Every structure is written in structure tokens, then in C-alpha cells.
Input
Amino acid sequence: MNARPRVFIARRLPGGDAVGSPLARVRDAAEVDLWADDAPPAPDALRAHGAACDGLLTMLTDRVDGALLDACPRVRVVANLAVGYDNIDVPACTERGVLVTNTPGVLTDTTADMTWALLMAAARRLPEGERAVRDGEWGPWHPTWMLGHRVTGATLGIVGPGRIGAGVARRARAFEMRVLYHGRREVPDFPGEFAPLDQLLAESDYVSVHTPLTPETAGMCDTAFFARMQPRAIFINTSRGGVVDQAALTQALHDGVIGGAGLDVTSPEPLPPDDPLLAAPRLVIAPHLGSATDETRTKMAHLAVDGLLAGLAGERPTHLVNPEALAVRGRR
Ligand code: DGY
Output
């Protein structure tokens, strides 16, 4: 009889540990080495724990590269508890026949909701207003204080028309907005109008970025990008901090090149409290909360477990990022 597989789970999982929970499902099928801390394992701890494992369930903070895989030669599946997988060197996994899975779909609405929370908060200056109340700066009502920008009827530009971008665009309908989108190609049925990037940046009151972080998108929101936006326009990013040249964004906010920003992601994360970005005006910022609801994180954990268990069982996982790895694995 085959020994039960062994897996390393790189953080406590949402959903508890009762029967049927994500953690219990893994325990039913495998020996579990659980990293019970909320802080990520350091790279050497990840290597040490993964060395005797057949599968890894990782977070977006855990770097999986060739060196780690070489130290963990038994690993045949890496299930990432995130839709983004820029923390994983996918070609290095593929070369070694290691399957990589992610958790798309279940976080689309939650992340689109968060994008809107940032957009509304930045448009209507909610954090500034709240600070004014708490700091005793709330004087008698007068008609020119703390003026924001309209949302209803404005133009929204979506850069990266994937699932989350489409979710944000669908919500814009309720605000009677014109929606432009830009991506590598036109997307049939996308709830908006395809536009070249220049046109989108020039015409949008809100520009919201939803691209994955890849070598092509790294730092793509730079000085030239912000210069092409309208001076009143608000920049929103709920994708990855790395798509933004943060120094350029900081400067654009200070110089009034753009009207404000709403960020859920930065580079690095966590952002040190003395980072120059935090001194920029008209900035609304959240600590990577895009998918952070109880329901969504539990669904993400179940999906990650589905990927992990399918990979361990020699099946093709539903959300397999690198199907080419199956062929490599078949040759071994
Ligand atoms: C993801 O899944 O990639 C998100 O960033 C998590 O919120």
C-alpha cells in the first residue's frame, strides 16, 4: 500500500478545522505539516519544511523558485492560495514537472467590491473627512469644503479586462458610467468599449488597473502613464503593487499630475510606515484586503485544497496554471 502523501501548508487556513473544512480535507488525504504562524515562513524554513513533502500549499508571500524545488525534490504540486501567482517561478515548476494551481473566480466579486470601495473613498475623500472629524477640524458647513469628484456619469477606464476588471465594469453600470477598457486584445462581451491605452488614459476620470504582474506589466504605471491621465483623474490599483512605479506615483500625487489614488497593493508589502508614498496627498490605501472576506477566503482555501489533492492524486487539477507540466511529469 502507498504511504500517505505529505504536504506543507504555509499558513493557518481560513474555514477552521471542523469536518469538511479546507484543513480537514487535506488531513483526510495526507500527513500535514502546518505552519501555524500568521507570519510567512522564511525561505530557509520553507525549504526545510518542504524537503520531505509531496505537495505545498503556498500563499502569495511565499517565493517558489528553482532553488526551493531543488531542495524539495518530492514536491509534485504547488497549490497557491491566490489567483495571482507572481510569487511562483512557473517555468521552473514546469521544467521539473511540478503542477501549479491557483484560485480564480471565487474572489472576483469581492475584489471588484473592494475596488469600488477605494474608488468611492478616493472620489469623495472619505479618509480625509474622517480624519477631520476626529482631529476636531470639522467646522460649520460651507459650500466649498472638502469637495470630491462625481462618480455617477463619469468615465471609468479599466486596464486589464480579466474577470475582476469585468466585475468592476459591471458595477459601473449602476453608476451610469461610460466604461473604456484596454488589454492585449478586445474581449467579446466585456461590459465596456475597447480603447487604445492613450485614449483611455486621456478620457477617464477613474483608471483602475487589473493586470497580473508579469515581466511585461512590471512598473507599467510610470511617469509617462500618469502624465497621460487627466489632472483630476483618480488612479486605482487592486492588482499587484509591482505594476506601479511607486516613486512616479508618489511624485504625480505631490505635483497634482493626477487627482488622487486608491491602492490596495504596494511594493513592498507590508509598506513600511515611513515609506514616502504615505506622505503623498489624496491617497487612500488599504493593506491588500481585496479578497478579504470570510466567505471568499474560505472558498479560496477550498479551491487551493482541490488543486493540491488533485495534483497529489495524479489527476489534472481544474485550475492548473501550467498544463505543460503534465507532459514533463508523464515522461518521468
Ligand atoms: C490574489 O488572490 O491574487 C489576491 O491578491 C489575494 O487577495
Summary: The pocket of (2R)-2,3-dihydroxypropanoic acid is lined by residues 60, 82-84, 107, 290-291 (CB under 6 Å). The first strand starts at residue 6 and ends at 9. The chain has two domains: 6-104+293-330, 108-285.
